[in-house]
Amino acid sequence: MTTTEALLIGQRRRLALTMVGGFAGVVALSLVVAIVADLADVQSAAALTDRLVPLLVFYAPAPVAAAGAYARCGGPACLTVGVVPAGVFAALVAVGSVFGVPGVGSGGDPLAGVTWSFALIGLSGAFVGYCAGVSAALLADIAGFGGDGEGDDEDDGDDEL
Whole-model pTM above 0.90? Predict the structure, then answer.
């Protein structure tokens, strides 16, 4: 697979799935811990999650997508990372509404607006990160380290002087 195909479509599907699923798990875990800490009135955990949740929801998609692009996971996987926080948030609010968790999913919440805002912010950050990762991968290929793992440095016998 050429470098362009590997960067656009993706070469490492298992790594891409691990990246997206792992990021979704971390975001879900942090949101659940934040809700539980708020409901249990645990001040130290609530203070930690007050700092961690915005970091994961707003800032983390860009570096995760950049790392995924550099690892040649492909554009779709890298951009999915940007939508993960919004999807996890919507799922958590839906589950909280169904099970009647206090303070989660009350009728006055503009769930659709908040979810779309999270998705747009995450997607734009993931796009910027993806572009940075692609640029870094291409620069690494030009500099002679990195490569797409397909044996570009093999001697196929056709580069005679």
Answer: no
